[in-house]
User: Fold these one by one.
Assistant:
Number 1:
Amino acid sequence: MAGKPKASKQQIADLGEWRVPLPKVGRSSAAVFAEMFQRKSGDADWINGRVFSLVYPTGRSDIDGVLLESNLAYLFENALNPLRFPSLGMMQFEVVSMVSSLLNAPTGSGAGFSAGGTESILLSVLVSRERAKAEKGIERGNIVFPLSAHPAFAKAAFYTGLEARATPLAGDFTADAGALRDAVDENTVLIVGSAYGFPHGVIDPIEELSDFALSRAIPFHCDACIGGFVLPFMERLGYDVPAFDFRLPGVTQMSCDIHKYGYATKGASVVVYRESQWMNHQMFAYDRWPAGFYWTGSVAGARAASPVAAAWAVMNYLGEEGYVEIMRGLMATTARLRNGIAELPGLAILGSPAGPLLAFTSQRDDINAIGDVMDDRGWHLGRVNNPSGLHMMISPLHATNADEFLADLADAVADHGESRGGDAHYN
Ligand SMILES: Cc1ncc(COP(=O)(O)O)c(C=O)c1O
């Protein structure tokens, strides 16, 4: 069809002349699903562990069963109004409470459920802007974050009209605390660090940043979107994990995604605040509507209920012991991959990743050329830049094909052509 737009990452599309009419007559469900699955067959093969971000497969049919059943049980409900669906409201309370406990949030803390890390971060930034306005009279605020912080912080600044100040990294890819301090001024409404960050999986100097934020009485968001369901269980296994959560007095708010290493299906994240009263700033209430008083505590209006149910179900199904056991295996797979990569000629891990996420470069070859060979062999690695590298978020399922991956990587290191010029991309 002429002018058909190419698939893109955007949720918006310039359709031009291209139109798909609603079919006049519906098709059979068999025909609909035949077409859907035919299209799906061209997607990345995550189910066989070929993908290293976006999905977090455990490879366990019992866990997948819990997720399927809980999603189905709440497929049609609407989380906009938990008063109509008290079971949903209660599960939501319990989920945010369990996450708060995991992060050692003190008595008096508050937490909210959101659809993902980006929304949790957006809410946290909004709350910080509003607190700064109410408590300090700051009208044109800024937020300060290291370059490695997730783009959700820049996006939140864009949405809230704050200035985004991104600061350089230290040589080990952690936040350069000095640069961050220098960027802070009297209009800074929020300081950010990650435990750990997406690009290299390294933990920022959270304690140092916490102390600094406290000394300046500025809120400090520790982003544990990935680490929140990793670091606590590594700690239980005896790994040396630096303090990163509410045990540090300067940490005022945190984000933690259940839909990453909490293994819930997508749409489940939690934002936690040291003081519950701050959450009033993320509430939107409107009483002039003919349909009555309207209020929400997050961005969406109507909201999927199944992510709440799935998060509650998987957390209760696994429990602390279940997560710890998964983490034990996951760290063993991570060590296998890490060592295997480091043994290949020229390859080097970037920085000191804390958990099952790493990026590696080559000191000998063009790493993007190696990445191209891996792409051609059906592996979906992410890419990082400055320096160029390949990126992997390791999931429990990768225990099944780590050796195949390393063998293909060895081949790619030994035999690759010129790079096709691939830039860093997020996949
Ligand atoms: C450290 C970190 N923070 C925030 C996010 C944003 O989370 P989401 O994609 O669920 O919105 C991500 C996503 O990968 C992340 O890695």
Number 2:
Amino acid sequence: MPKLTFLVSGLTVDVPTGTRFLDACRQHDAPHEFGCTVGSCGTCILSIEQGAANVDKASADELETVEMCTDHAGARLGCQLVIRGDLAVRPLER
Ligand code: FES
């Protein structure tokens, strides 16, 4: 089962493959902030510091929102991530 690690808090949880990051955060009361939950506000923006290949590729709509929020290479929207393997994430400033 994939491990999801929140680097700021050090929390690591096990999540079934195919779990949405948003759902994993809600189920484990994890320390990550969300807003719209549909990929348009950028509140959930994060950096995947380990396991960037273990999520689905970003859609064009996700990339558009990311570009409006940050120039951090490889930034993703937490509300759009589906977990396929181990991940370690850190929130980004917008
Ligand atoms: S919560 Fe709004 S873009 Fe993810």
